[in-house]
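Appendix B. Chain record.
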Amino acid sequence: MAAEKGSAFLLKVGNGATPVVYATVAGLRTTQLSVNGEAVAITSKDSGGWRELLSGAGVRSVSVSGAGVFTGSAAEVRVKANALAGTLDDYRLSFESGETMSGRFLVTRLDYAGDFNGERSYTLSLESSGPVVSA
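Structure tokens predicted for this chain:
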């Protein structure tokens, strides 16, 4: 697998329509993705002293975080509205290879910061709700 540029790792938010049209959340300088899984142990005395896990069981989730400079784009405004309302929305992560990951997410944190004569920046965190599909 070839190395990919971090600048091509984009977070996009849906427009609420059907079919969904995605807009890139502008200003993001860093983006991070974590795929989380909770294991279900099925270890018994027949396991020979080794832990055994049940495949396909447990809770899976995807966490996304990012930080960037506020630009006032329509996508940033939508993310802010989702955060204030506690609304689930469609989000997509796209990568330089053309691969995408799409699903419904909740904005669990949105922070703004700025200092005198400096840019206004933000950080955000998203948590998945339901399946996240990779294409």
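Further analysis of this model is presented in Appendix C.
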